[in-house]
Structure formats: structure tokens, C-alpha cells
Amino acid sequence: MKRNTIYIVFALILGLILGYLMFGRTATSTIESHNHEQEASLESNEMWTCSMHPQIMKSEAGDCPICGMDLIPVTTDDSGLTAQQFKLSKNAIALANIETTVIGAGTNGDTNLKLSGTIKVNDDKVFVQPAHFNGRIDKLYVTSVGQKVHKGQLVATIYSPDLIRAQQELITAYKMKASQPELYSAVRTKFKNWMIHGGQLDEIEKSGQVVNQFKIYAHVSGTVSEISAKEGDHVMDGKAIFKVSNLSTVWAAFDAYENQIQTLKVGQSIDIVAKAYPNKVIPSKIAFIDPILEASTRTVTVRTVLENKEGLFKPGMFVEGAIANLKENKAEVLTIPVSAVMWTGKRSVVYLKVNVDEPVFQMRDITLGSKLGAAYEVINGLALGDIVVTNGTFTVDAAAQLKGKSSMMNQNNVSHDVSDGIENDLISEVEVQEAPEIFQKQLEVVLLSYIQLKDNLVNSDFESAKNQAIQLLKAVKEVDTKSISEDRIMMTLWDEQSTKIENNLTEIQSVKDIATFRNVFSKVSLDVKHLIELYGVSFKVYVQFCPMSNQNKGGYWLSLEEKIKNPYYGAVMLECGENDKIIE
User: Fold this and answer.
1) What is the CATH number of the domain that holds 458?
2) What's the chain's Rg over C-alpha atoms?
3) Are residues 434 and 576 in the same domain?
4) How far is it, in rounded angstroms, from Cα 323 to Cα 166?
5) H or E element: which one contains 226?
6) Percent of the chain clearing pLDDT 90 (strictly above)
7) Most trustworthy range by pLDDT among 1-10, 449-458, 481-490
8) What CATH number does the domain containing 208 carry?
9) What is the pTM of this model?
10) What are the residues whose beta carbons fall under 8 Å from the beta carbon of 281, sequence distance 6 or more?
11) In a domain? residue 467
12) What integer best gives the mean pLDDT of the chain?
């Protein structure tokens, strides 16, 4: 009996052990497996980004707030970095002297807007000394620009047949003065209209002798700014002999860029310092803002009037103007140091340090506003608390290029665009029916004429380029639109684009130098590019881009070959640029 009991207890114990081994581990494994899967799921869906705008980071799936595309999961490598991030060694950080700044309090920089300019003659105080009668200059006493002239000063003697005849009339009228005072008065008045000095007339009347040379006296005071005639020249009534400028007041004329215009207004206070007198600050107010933008420099003229009775300011002097407290009503606007920004074409980029404790960096495209002293206003792309690289940015960019990451010259998921005076509207996105072959053939003539113009600029042949621009304009005007006349969209787009290209080709005819010609050529290139994108041609066209042209604004051109030959710099930087896309 006791032996049976022992067997039963042993069997129960053995069964419990076997049951735990068979079912307990399985349950635990199932729970652990479930937990691991849940953790993996949470990790894989932790952050979401946009493929077109990698600066967008969300904790859950959704749409990109910029372009509306579906967000995608952020992928990381074995080190935990995303595809756009890279890490530098601490030794590299030290050697390159890389410094960063946290965007926030104390990083808004100078709130002053500083403008560079020059002292110019006040055109409102420029006067002309004309000849008031026809004649020949026998003696000119004003011989050099910068010479001082005072009102009443003898400036020239002139021989005039008209005055010789008039003197004879005066002598006769003087003799008949008692009997015909009206005649005598009329003759004297004629001389007054010619601005003949009264003393000269008195001498003629008393002597009864005709004077062959008449003296001209200055009727204004000032500094000679232009001489329009010389001894021996024949002058006509009203023609200028010279011009004088009253320099008791002068203009301080500054150049303001497009993105600075919004901060400027007439009557605004501006402190001016001349390079010649660095310790002397002259307070003034903006008197004029040019309503017309200078196309070649993308600037407007901002002008103020300065008192100059002591003659301190000389036309041509360099001056600097500072406008203070621009952001007194814009406290929330972010700014970053100028040294943090890198430029490539239209794009302005910075490098972020994404990890406070680790040297992990990532490029970020940003949108800038006005330049405020040593800082730029940030419109979009950064937020308070972001850490930006402010020293050693080019070293960080070089590291990004070597690691195959997004960089200034190797941008991923970012397309070129051209701004600041070069329109690049997304006209290629407009859907049109396939253009008739006969119309495409005419566009090919336009394109080939454009290619010849481009090749002339590659060779820096200015005269040939100007002549070819005329031929290109002729080719555009000769395009026959009968084949597309029934398609309203095609005709509307053609009217718009052909008008733009004709206007730009007309503008380019008045250009006097090859640098300005190349700036206008960038507009023409976009016009032709849009035409080819809309209507197509029968052969392959390469759209090429140089980020350094147009004062670093960037510029496109079209080519029939893949090899880069830069029309904006010619032999200076012949291979500068890249193939942006192919139109087939």
C-alpha cells in the first residue's frame, strides 16, 4: 500500500514538471514574442517624413503639410541615423573648428538694416548755363569740371552776326530816343531777352561803335559738373555751354535688394557714415525710393538729402546707411547669423546639429527674408531651439558630399528653381494635346536658332550673339499658328509665351555689355525651355543648369549634347553646370 502511494506521488510530481516544460515555456515565449513584435512595431512607426520635404517630421502617419503627399516612415541605418543624417568624429569637429548656435533668445542678431551707397550730385540743384543767342565761342573761361563759378562771373565771349545787326539798330534807336522812345525801349528789350549785360549796351550807345564780341556772364553759382562746348564751337539759342551743381546739398544714394524693400518707407530715419569720416554719424531721413527695380542688379535706389554747406561730402564718396529698430513690431521673427547660410542658385541651406550630445548633422533648405546687419530673417524652415552650424559650414558640407548625403551641390529630393527676376513658373505641368508635327518643325527652327545664340555666348562672341538674337526674334515672329488655331489652350499659351520671348529678345538688343546680355539670355532660355516642354520637338534636348550664374541666382540653358558648355562664363568656367533633365 505504502509502495503504491509513493508511485502515485512520484507520478504526480513528474506530470507537473512535464506540463510546465511543455506549456509554460510556450506561453511565456508567446507573450515575449508578442511584446517584441509590439516594440518593433512601435519603433518602426516612431517617426514619419515627406520624401520631397525631409525637414517634415511627424510622430504619426498623415499628409505632408507643404505638398500634401503621403508621409513615409523614417528609415535608419545600423547606427540609428536617417538617410539624410551623417556623423562626424569628435576629432574632425575639433580640427575644423566647427561651431553651432541654438536658435532662440540672444541669436536674433542686429536689428539694423545696413545699406551701402555713394554720394551723388543733387539733380534738383543742377543748373544749365546756356547761350541765349546764336554765335561762335571765341573765348571760354570755364575749362574744367570741378571749377567753381560765381553768379555774375565772366564765362565766355561770343561772336554773333545777329548781335552785330541788333547793335546797329540800337545805335540808330539811341539817336532817335527823344523822338521815338518806344522804338528805343523795344530794341533795349530785345537785348535783355538775350541776357546781354546792361553795361555793355551803355558802352555801345555812348561810343556808337559796334562790338564784334559779346561777353556772357554766369547767372548761377556752383561747381561745374559738365562742359558741353569748347572754344570755336558754334552754339545756338538755348544750347547748354556748361552745367553747374550747387553742392550745398547732396544725395546719399543707396542700393536696396528686393527682399529689403518691404522694410523701407519714405520718411524713415537713417544714420549715415561716410568712409572718409568713420567717426561722424549724420542723421537723415529717406526722401525717395525708386519705384522701378534695376533688372541687372535686382536693386532699387533709396535716396536721402544731406546738408553740405561745409563741403564735407564729395560726389563719389562711399557711405553706409543704418536703419534701426526694424523689428520692433516683429519680435517673433527668427534670425540666424549670416555665416550659417550657404547659397546654391536660389536655394539657401543650413546644416542642423540634430543631436545635442552627438555630432550628427543634416542639411536643411530654408527660406530667408531681409538681411538685418549680420543676420538673416528666417521665413520658413527653422524653429526655436534648432541648432545650426555657424562656423565650419563648408567643412560639414564637404563631409556630407563624401558620405553621399544631401549637400549644397548634391541635393536629394530637391529640384532646381530660378528666381529673383527670372520667372520659372511651372508651365510644363499644364496639360496640352500633342502639337501637330508641322508646328513642332517650326519650333525646331526656333530652337536651332537659340542653340546658335547659346554657342556664341559659349565662345564669348558678343557681337555674333547680338546678331543671332535678332535672327532668333525673327524666327519666333515667323512661326505660323494655323495648325494649332483650333486648340484654345495651345493658342493661349503660345500667345503668352511668344510675347514674353519677343519682349526679352527686344530688351536684349539694347544691352551694351556681354555680362548684362547673359543675364537677359537666362530669361530667353526659360522662354524657349517652356515652349519645348509644351509643344515638343522631334529630337532630344538637354536642360542644363549653372547655380553660379546671374550673381549666384542660377540659370538654365538648352543644349543638343550632354556635355556641359557653359554660356554664362564661356572659357572661364566652361564645364561649370549639370544636366537637370532631358526633354524627349
Assistant:
1) 1.20.120
2) 39
3) yes
4) 61
5) strand 222-227
6) 14
7) 449-458
8) 2.40.50.100
9) 0.42
10) 271, 272, 273
11) yes
12) 78
